[in-house]
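Incident log, support desk, overnight shift.

02:14 A customer reports that sequence design results differ from what the structure should imply. Their input is reproduced verbatim below. On-call engineer (initials T.W.) acknowledged and began investigating.
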């Protein structure tokens, strides 16, 4: 079971993550969406397409843009459509 946590709070947990470029992508149903808030940040990967971001909010603390996902990736990355990955101090193990 792979777990993503921040500030001692589990954000996501799954035994069905997909690993792409060393990052675990969690299926949407494994993520505690109530801890995430939308962000207007986007970035572009040459082969995956446009990534969208979310921020994590736990006990009043905010980790801006610590979550990314591809709502409509290029065909080469279609397997991670809607899956979530973490960074910026989020522990994934």
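02:41 Re-run completed on a clean worker. Output:
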């Amino acid at each position: 079971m792979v777990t993503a946590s921040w500030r001692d709070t589990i954000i996501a947990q799954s035994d069905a993550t997909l690993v792409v470029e060393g990052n675990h992508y969690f299926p949407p149903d494994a993520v505690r969406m109530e801890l995430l808030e939308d962000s207007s940040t986007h970035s572009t990967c040459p082969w995956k397409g446009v990534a969208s971001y979310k921020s994590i909010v736990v006990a009043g603390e905010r980790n801006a843009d610590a979550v990314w996902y591809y709502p409509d990736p290029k065909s080469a990355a279609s397997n991670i459509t809607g899956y979530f990955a973490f960074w910026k101090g989020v522990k994934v193990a």
